[in-house]
Amino acid sequence: MQQFLLILLNGLTSAALFFLVASGLTLIFGMMRVVNLAHGGFYLLGGYVAFSAGRAADSWVLGVVAAVVAVAVLGLAMHQILLRWFEQQDMRVALVTIGVSLILADQLLFVYGGRAYEVSVPDPLRGPVDLGFLDLVYPRYRFLLMALAIVVGILLWLLITRTRFGMIVRAGVDDRDMVSATGINVRLVFAAVFLLGAGLAGLAGAIGGGVFSLAPTTDVEYLLYALIVVIVGGMGSIPGAAIGALLVGLVSQLALGYAPPLASILTFGLMIVVLAVRPQGLMGRPA
Fold it and tell me: How far apart are CA 232 and CA 74, in angstroms?
């Protein structure tokens, strides 16, 4: 029973991190119809920036802030300089973002080498929490990660569904010309969405780097998981990303715990089943 509960908590931890990564991707992918395949690279860059800035300033908070700002600015620059001219052409966008991802991975490998790094967490966030039953203890920092994912999810849902900004974004996706005719600068709004989505990837890297190691192939791994979460949950849906992250996190950890050889099959099988039954994802809108 204790082992099952620990695996369950690990699944929730993975789900929280997958949601933080996927929430930025689903904003960009779902709201702007831009396939940003550099999102995994943004995650890894955020982790490395948090590691370096946090160590230089001897402050975990400054490291996290530096990671969010640096990745958000890079994401905005990529959108404005490389993507905005042909963002409706899926193939060109995919190829350009793959190129950016490869360049990022190559430069990060050059700077940090092949070693695995971990973002240093402040002492008050270290240590275990006694859950008070079955002699069960669990790292305090992982509870922080889960709480942060819930807060980010609620704030994003409120931003998209309860604010004028969210209303403009949703209207711009459905009919950009109509929104532009009302005098609203849709390009500026979409640039803000890209800034926010990239910043969330940086935040995920900074926070996730305190739980899981940062290594050269981490970008590909998290891009893959984020894509599965977005596809399962439905593009552009924040609640869908939360449900997708929960399913992928629990399935992957339970499979690793009880049937390791089948872990990849079950995780990808989940995506295939959802696509077969509901092609738009669990919470996505039909095309």
Answer: 28
Q: What is the DSSP string of 143-161?
A: HHHHHHHHHHHHHHHHHHH
Judged on CB neighbours under 10 Å (0-12, 13-18, 19+), 94 is middle
Q: Burial of 170 by CB count in 10 Å (0-12 exposed, 13-18 middle, 19+ buried)?
A: middle
| Chain centre to alpha carbon of residue 3 | 28
Measured CA to CA, the distance from residue 44 to residue 127 in angstroms comes to: 25
Q: Which helix (H) or strand (E) holds 130?
A: strand 128-130
pLDDT in tens, 182-240: 777 878 888 898 899 999 999 999 999 998 989 988 989 999 999 999 989 888 788 99
Task: Fill in the DSSP letter of residue 37.
Answer: T
Q: What CA–CA distance (Å, rounded) separates 70 from 58?
A: 18
What angle, rounded to 10 degrees, do the helices at 164-174 and 140-162 form? 70
| Amino acid of residue 95 | L
Mean pLDDT, residues 83-97 taken together: 84
Neighbouring residues of 177: CB distance < 8 A, sequence distance ≥ 6 = none
- Which are the contacts of 170, defined by CB distance < 8 A and separation ≥ 6? 31, 160
